[in-house]
Amino acid sequence: MDKQEGYQIPTTLYHAALGKMVLDYIGRVHPTVIQQAVESRAVQTLEAIRFILENKRLTDQQCCERIDQLIALFFQELDVKIDRHSEYE
After folding, report:
1. Residue 16 falls inside a structural domain
2. What is the residue range of 68's domain?
3. Which residue has the higher pLDDT, 26 or 9?
């Protein structure tokens, strides 16, 4: 809990307030702005994958593992659940 002016305020209240502010802001933003931001993040992920593939010090298995981790992180950031098997589990 955080203290502010002598009162204890639960962190969840801060999260709720911030979440509401974000939703209010997003509601005013044109949908193409959000789409461009997601596409930009996707391009950054693809660039990171390219760097992994070009790294001659990594084995094929290491490349696949790192790429899987990047993809999982990308979907986690978008809050998208992916259900797929992994050859390395």
Report:
1. yes
2. 2-77
3. 26
